[in-house]
Amino acid sequence: MPELELSCGLPPGPDFADLTVLAEELGYARVWIYDSAPLWEDPFVHLALAAQCTSRIGLATAVLIPDQRSVMTMVSGIATIARLSGGRFRACFGTGFTARLAVGQRPMTLAALAEYVTAVRRLLAGGIAVVDGAPTRMMHADGLAASRPIEVPLWVSVFGPKGAALVGEVADGVIGPAHPTLPAAMIMSGTVLGPGEDPASDRVAEAIGPWRVVDWHNAYAKGGAEAVDGLAGGQAWRAELEALAPHDRRHLLTFEGHVTHLPMRDRRLLEHVDRKTMVGDRARIARQLSRLSDAGYSEVVYTPTGPDVARELREFASAYYQ
Known about the structure:
Layout: E1 5-10, H1 16-26, E2 30-33, H2 43-52, E3 58-61, H3 71-84, E4 89-93, H4 97-101, H5 110-124, E5 129-131, E6 134-136, E7 154-157, H6 160-170, E8 173-175, E9 184-188, E10 191-192, H7 202-212, H8 214-229, H9 234-242, H10 251-254, H11 264-267, E11 279-280, H12 282-294, E12 299-302, H13 309-321
Helix pairs in contact: 1-2, 1-13, 2-3, 3-5, 5-6, 8-9, 12-13
């Protein structure tokens, strides 16, 4: 399938490097790693391991959360992965919706995100940026980091008209809606059905469920009871969660298992999730992917979950390359 790159997204964990090796063998263009300190291990450590056991596949972040690292700490980490990967690294940033709410904080503002990314770009280029009111620069001596400028594409994950305007000013690409001037990637879940397999099967539920219940997580985090109660099964889901913790600790449960696992209260939502989008035989998956290319996307980031992620990666690649 021309035009549209097929990449995959995976959490930083014990299997990340091995799955990245498999993704490279299967022809995936890039592996995007998640970043949320309350949920997963450190992405830069796993990117370093993956960089050293692969040679072709691109490495990227989906997405780095500025408030989890100072600007200079972020720049040093980016420079490290860029060197270890031989220039295969792409850094993408976001406001930290899940990561921030999971620790009881609001996401960053778009203005703060733009300021942070601009400072990162300036420092990687070898310039001076004002951070926390003081000028700073990369002072790494020869042999302790790649010489500046360090060429790393900087992307941003944003949505809505304000976000679109932001990326046009500060980014090289976007995760989010297709952009008129920049390359855009879409994150999506799905699974390829086996011969005669029913989309209502337990295997399909396990393979797509963790991503498909995110709407309930986000609704509750953003709009509270009224928002989540408006979704099918939302009121029962909320009641079960709220019975487990007082009001000031419910943010510690809202995103439990987010996009990787299914707590029992999330499992009860599976009868309500979409089992049509990117669920089907190889031909159906290929047709749905082609529509993304027609819609202006340059890349799709497939996010496999379930008990057999390797199987999901193999089958989805087969659908793409058929």
